[in-house]
Amino acid sequence: MKDLHAESLNEKEKFWKDQASQLRWFREPKTILSQNDQNYPIWFEDGLLNMSYLCIDRHIEEGFGEQIAVIYDSPVTQQLLQFTFNQLKEEVSKLAGGLQSLGLKKGDTAVIYMPMIPQTLFAMLACARIGVIHNVVFGGFAPNELVVRIDDCQPKVLITATAGVEINKRIPYLPLVEKAIQLAQDKVENIIVYNRKLIDNQHEYFENTLDYDTLVQQSQPVDCVPVASNHPLYLLYTSGTTGKPKGIVRDTGGYATALQFSMKHHYGIEPGKTFWAASDFGWAVGHSYTVYGPLLNRNTTIIFEGKPVMTPNAGTFWRVISEHKVEVMFTAPTAIRAIKKEDPDGEWIKKYDLSHFKKQFLAGERCDVATLDWFKEKVGVPAIDHWWQTESGSPMLGLLTSQDYTIKRASAGKAIPGYDIKIFDENGYELDAHHEGYLVIKLPLPPGALLGVWKDFDRFNKSYLEQFPGYYFSGDGAIKDEDDYFFITGRVDDVINVAGHRLSTSEMEEVIAGHPDVAECAVVGIEDTLKGQIPFATVVLKNNSEKKQCDLEKEIVMRVREKIGAVACMKNAMLVQRLPKTRSGKILRKLIRTMIDGKEFQIPSTIDDEKIIDEIQEKIQEYKRTNNFSN
């Protein structure tokens, strides 16, 4: 079998021309690789296509109109709905017609502020159908988060819903939207509201709102509008942004090419099978692998409105996999850790038929070995860690199922075709195997990677290209072994300096997570008057653990000392009920560090539950008081 990675680097244009030919273009590109006005590489410049056509119409024309395209499974509302490709086309094309009737045209922007419901997917594909650039914002985000996005991308329409649903909780959206509209400098012309009648009779519409269902019913379906390959499909603002947000721009043709390639070669799933990415639409995973990737590949995709636990129990994921015959799943490691915490012996797993379940992919943050081992033992299918970013839109490190490969525990895999990945020191010199450094990627980035930052090339250049000329700087640290497997060590700002020794907090987390009573943990570097920084661990125990704070702390300190050495200076481990996380499951380590240091902090807009702040602060004060701890 050909080495696809070597071919993608040595014969870039031929390789990606061959991959692009797997799509159905309205005009096939002849110029494969070129540069834009800022001398930044772009792909398929002269091609014409439409993403909505590729995800829907193409499959209907090929005779698959009655295949199930979308399954909506909502344990929080106890709803189960299915849509064929024919039904999907009707919903999407009529909503697209409604948007056109409001004056929207190719190149305009739209903000979508909705929960995990089918109408969110319909809205994304409707925008794509007529060349409107969408920006999806988490439903329930604070008004200010909507404001900064509205003022930055200046949408002509905002599509929302009356409410979202969390565990035993209704989240009204319209008061948040109304406040954002009042605060925004740029006034949105039209507000489309989907009325969730099943859960919602408490809403009040406000000025300029249009009813989603009425608009769709009154509109005529419209055909797809051809767009240039480099026409922006969507904007996605990076989480945790302060001040002016950083809107990542995704193209259409390169993105479609990359997703089609990844569904076949990386995730290894055949058309017609069921693929489930348990991610919110507001994240890059939700865009790439809940909406566009599966539908491009003619897979049935699942929209899941719920949590891995408490909706209603730790068996929810296994029920969905069993009932819908999921073959390949993608989720964040934190979801598996949450299940492991609630069901450490895997009793819920035994209740469901998982015989058709072939592969579990993990990404979003580095997965600890203890969780990988638990999954392999209890579930019995490969848990494959891989690595990518919002900026890449698809995997940069992983393993190709279309070629022979071996999973290495704790590794994110090898470079995916198109990515020429190297490890540099701070001066830009390439490091040999087994030396930790900065993960960088030689330009040009392959198709599907970001086009830039929305209307701000200087910021794009400063954030990603300036530090190592000719290379994209990922912001992550990594180590490569002699077999070209990469091990992500975390964001470069997660490396702490203990008395002049640079130490990886993720390595310490790996050691602590191996403790039999630990469900998950976070290690941060806090200020120390003597050593500059010292590590501090916050730890969540498994539900069946009866371990006491003092005993656990001694055992953790000993484990780190044995595995890493006394140089780590690990002395403190604090028990907590849960860790503060973003909605995608990333642990908010910077927030933990700031709280322990006793400094002022700002609650990130992406936090999953603000109530945890008070819980953590109480724990910190209790810990400092009972341990006579001061830093």
What can you see in these coordinates?
It is a single chain. This protein is α/β, with parallel strands linked by helices and 631 residues long. It has 2 domains: 4-306 and 386-478, 3-Layer(aba) Sandwich (Rossmann fold); 499-626, 2-Layer Sandwich (GMP Synthetase, Chain A, domain 3), CATH 3.30.300.30. Helices cover 31% and strands 24% of the residues. The strands form 9 sheets. It has an 8-stranded mixed beta sheet with strand order 12-11-8-6-7-14-15-25, with helices on both faces. The termini are far apart.
Topology:
Blueprint: H1 4-10, H2 12-20, E1 33-35, E2 41-43, E3 48-49, H3 51-61, E4 68-74, E5 79-84, H4 85-101, E6 109-114, H5 118-129, E7 133-138, H6 143-153, E8 157-161, E9 163-166, E10 169-172, H7 174-183, E11 190-194, E12 209-211, H8 212-218, E13 227-228, E14 234-237, E15 247-250, H9 253-266, E16 274-277, H10 284-296, E17 300-304, H11 316-323, E18 326-331, H12 333-342, E19 359-362, H13 369-378, E20 383-385, E21 397-398, E22 414-415, E23 421-424, E24 437-442, E25 452-453, H14 457-465, E26 471-480, E27 486-491, E28 495-498, E29 501-504, H15 505-513, E30 518-528, E31 532-541, H16 549-563, E32 572-575, H17 589-596, H18 611-626
